[in-house]
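MFS transporter
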Amino acid sequence: MAKTDPYAALRIKEFNIFLLVRFVLVFGWSMQFIVIEWEVYSLTKDPLSLGVIGLMEIIPAFTMALFAGHIVDQKEKRNLLALCIAAFSLISLGLFLLTWDKVTGNWETKTILYSIYALVFFGGFLRSFFGPTIFSLVALIVPKKVYPNAATWNSSTWQMASVLGPAFGGFFIGWIGVHWSLCIIFGLVLLSFIILLQIKRKPILNPKIGEPVIESLKEGVRFVFKTKAILGAMTLDMVAVLFGGAIALLPVFAQDILKVGSEGFGVLRAAPAVGAFLTMLVTAYIPISKNAGMKLLVAIFGFGVSIIVFGLSSVFWISVLALFFSGVTDGVSMVIRQTILQIKTPDHMRGRVSSVNSMFVGSSNELGAFESGVTAKLMGTVTAVVFGGTMTLITVVTTGIVSPTFRKLDLTKDLEEHNKD
């Protein structure tokens, strides 16, 4: 039944609670990022200050990733996530206070700015724990035979929240201002904490509790690099994100190339997310575990083609369609990648494997934006986007040629084995 039931994972009560927690968290986190970007630029009027925000977050997130994975594998997951959310609430509260005139009325602008950067840095530290903890917890909530369906709904929830969060962040800034927008975010974080407590504590499945940190980290990295399915999925995702970062250059396309203004920019920004979300819903009905390796290669190849078409287009509706299809292909690849990671990763190593994945992929978002900015400066905007898409195509073709094992990857047998358990 789990093979064909598009709502298999949703029939599990705790998984629905988990999805609600994740939606509220991602919605709040992404909304907070937009609000803080607005506030920082309002304080400085310096575009470089926006780059510093990303730098302040990625440095601790990247450097702490492996250690965070070790901790996650050693601890009970529900309570660890609750602790992370509680710490996140302190960040939200701090930002709320930093935008309150009664608190910072006599502060210098630099003091407020550096205080915001400090809280963003702390948020990056937390980010290194959030990913591995959530990845590990969901595997303890749903049975293995439902992993592909759970990956679809989990990714769809993330996608929806990451789209709606920034949108509402922009609306709330105009409606009630930065300060009270941050108050709403603080309330959302507290709400996610309360909802999370409805999930029961889970057993710790790691047989090596107390294992030395260095040995634990080595084991996690060795596992990723010797498991070709996981390494291939991570590498393809990293390259697609790193070189396909057209999103970072959308303001340039909207203002100078397509000349569609802020409204057109909003449509362009939403197009990939709409495509990804709709595709994820479709994958709930159409299983994609059969020939997963080839499907992933085709999806990322399609992503690269879409980016090239977008870069070459000077017609608004063609650009929108290209970005929409980039989202469609990215949605397929996201579900397949999450399914590969869930199925191929042993329970006792989920934290470490997820941490390595975050180093591959999570950091690529910021590096991809940086790469797009540098190549646009050196080559020109259109050439930079076409170059990124071309590099994605080259990587996909190379992977397909040099790794026939990955090309022939089929998750059907793995799922059948899980169904027998």
